[in-house]
Specification:
Blueprint lengths: L11 H11 L23 E3 L12 E2 L9 E2 L1 E2 L14 E6 L21 E3 L4 E11 L3 E5 L9 E9 L6 E6 L10 E5 L6 E11 L5 E3 L1 E5 L12 E5 L19 E8 L5 E13 L5 E8 L13 E7 L20 H7 L8 E5 L2 H4 L3 E11 L7 E12 L43 E5 L22 E2 L1 E5 L12 E7 L13 E11 L2 E6 L4 E6 L3 E7 L6 E7 L2 E4 L4 E6 L12 E7 L5 E2 L3 E5 L5 E9 L29 H4 L15
Antiparallel strand pairs: 1-22, 2-17, 3-17, 4-16, 5-7, 6-13, 7-12, 8-11, 8-14, 9-10, 9-12, 15-16, 16-22, 17-21, 18-20, 18-22, 19-21, 23-25, 24-27, 25-26, 26-31, 27-28, 28-29, 29-30, 30-37, 31-36, 32-33, 33-34, 34-37, 35-36
Amino acid sequence: MSYSPLARPLSPRLFAATAAVLLPAGLLVAAPPASAAPTTAPPGNFSSSFESADPQPAASTAEVDASGKPVQSNLSGSSPTGLPGSLLGQVNAVTASAENPPNETAANLTDGNPSTKWLAFNPTGWVTYQLAKPAAVVRYRLTSANDAPTRDPKDFTLQGSNDGSTWTDLNRQTGQSFSGRFATNTYGFTNTTAYGYYRLNVSANSGDSLVQLADWDISDGSNARPPATPMGSVVGTGPVSGYNMKPRAGFTGVASLRYSGGAEADGRSYATNKVFEVDVPVGPKTRLSYKIFPEFTGQDTQYPSTYAAVDLHFTDGGYLSLLSPVDQHGYPLTAAGQGASKVLYVDQWNAVQSEIGVVANGKTIDRILLAYDDPHATASTRFQGWLDDITLAGAPTPIDGTNLTNYVDTRRGTNASGSFSRGNNLPISAMPNGFNFFTPVTNATSNSWEYDYQRNNNTANLPTLQGLAISHEPSPWMGDRDQMSVMPVPAGGSLTGAPSSRALAFSHNDEIARPDFYQVTLQNGLIAQMSPTDHGGIMRFTFPSGQATGSLVFYNGTFTIGAGGTFTGWVDNGSGLSAGRSRMFVSGTFDRAPTTSSATSATFDTSGNRQVTLRIATSFISSTRHTEISTWRSPATASTRSTRPPPWHGRTGSAGSTFRVRPRRSG
């Protein structure tokens, strides 16, 4: 990551323009000759995933226009249609009988945002507000939260106190219900006593073992409506629920930026917030990218949370959104344009990318912004979403187009699950119409969902490798057959037990996933590579430096590892839909003999040579069919791929070739 400091000197051009305005005409200094003009600054870079070590954003800070007015209308970040006379601004402390930190705490009841909530793992509970000064409350409003309506409060009592321990019942309600999710009920009563504490005591919910509530507002009965606040844009842990995602995490890392708010009346509702101050020159190839997770707020089928986009402000006073930028699909990269395009899926992470150098080359970015713009909002419109991985790349690494295989990323479609398909595929390397598939697995025990892109990441929101596997899976709905895996284990690691005990974390940024080759560099520095042949393949493992030994563990079969550097065995497993499957025999050689071995593991001396190469062949006929092994080449590493004919060359063509799609015949 790289970014420029917030403070920067005035450019000579800006200084000259300022002088022209301030100095009398007779005192203006002559302009320097053309040869002395400053050269264009090289394109800059910036990135933040909102982690603690990354650049941190401004919190809920409205962008102001040239006249100093907030870029915001018909929108508020909290209580868009707040209870008149609301006292939430005077709440100094919030306590509760129980809560579910960090995201579902009682303090969420005061934020005016129905997308956040208080949750307690009990069917009853209470929440107390302490006011800055005593006030007489005569109205209150409750808003239901998401999830199951059986968690809604049914019987509850509003109580007042002046010491926080002795309580007076002010209003009791029984048998209450809400019209839906994020619905609001308002209650009024007679009270003339000013209390410094108010408590909502829920004595029964609607039948669940948990109780939840989105908002609790209290009012002194006056007609004063709370003033609008800036759109919410604060760092949080991430969305709680959705498709194919890890709850309470960003797309990468454990943090992301939450945006939220709502309309105050029918009509266009918009706001722009400042997120970062930067100094990033734009070049002809500069690319803006980010991830966005619009929530399905209130199950509103107008999808209001999708009307959001990253915008940029330039030192010349202009905005990216005014330059007609487009995203990677050709849709307008503006808040209104993204919402109107319906290109963003709700309740899941979306990747957005734009080649902004096409429209902004030569400009300098001084602010990164987040914009919201719903042209057709109603008074009931509420929105919330999450932003992550904002990146400005001045010179993105181009793809080597000499081989069209380089354009293929076999991980595409792996961010999927049984609840939402983006392809439901594995990051497979194989020969065209090959006998075997080679795939990394994050769950070596599964014969269906063997590689999860994100949803089962570890606590640091990183995927974990459990092995390099041989697979025959046509889809997770059909399941796999005769699947086995090999896992590299550094010195001291577990050689027995479940594959999860040997799992090692990695980042998707450290993977190469192509049809003819896969490589991953794990967080501990271990490198795993594999390249397929027709009935087998080659795996190479480079263990971390400074370790005397490294091991390979075989899983999901019956194996015999010989002292001379060979192994044989068989695999006999499959899903319930793998009808007609037969036993798969395996045979292979290591590039050197192991120092020790067992039925499922081989340990090697890595003090002088950190690399261990395994050549493996398979057969459904015989355990002795391994004649290919002696003729195999080394793995298709970055240094050797260019020296061997690409196995997919005939299928993908070469750079500049024309693709033709033949119509499929029926029958």
